[in-house]
Amino acid sequence: MSEIKLGLVEAKFADIIWSNEPLTTKELVNRCQSELNWKRTTTYTVLKKLCERGIFKTEESVVTALISKEEFYSIQSEQFVEETFSGSLPAFIAAFTKRKNLSEEEIEEIKNMIDKF
Length: 117
Hints:
The protein folds into two domains: 8-69, Arc Repressor Mutant, subunit A (Orthogonal Bundle); 88-117, no CATH class. A hairpin with a 2-residue loop joins strand 2 and strand 3 (62-65). With 117 residues, the protein is mainly alpha-helical. It has helices spanning 8-20, 25-36, 40-52, 69-85, 89-99, 104-116, and strands spanning 23-24, 56-59, 62-65. The chain has a three-stranded antiparallel β-sheet with strand order 1-3-2. The longest helix has 17 residues, at 69-85. It is elongated.
């Protein structure tokens, strides 16, 4: 999949879809009007853009996700580690833990994840 990213406002829009799918375009317009204070045209413009990126699709006026929220953020995390740390997860963890101490529970959870992998 090509590189995909969402800006802050696009992420809020995407969350509306992920939290309520499947939903009609009319329902989406109404939700975006109440939650984001958007006009119908803004909703359709952003929806079209995210459909072109392969995140969502619209068929017969029903909007659904092509990738889940979890999958999207997994892809975005992989891209971040690749771009920032040359793909090195240990380098990312080393940088992350320099400013944030991990709890014993977090350390155990990471160990369990590694063992399962």
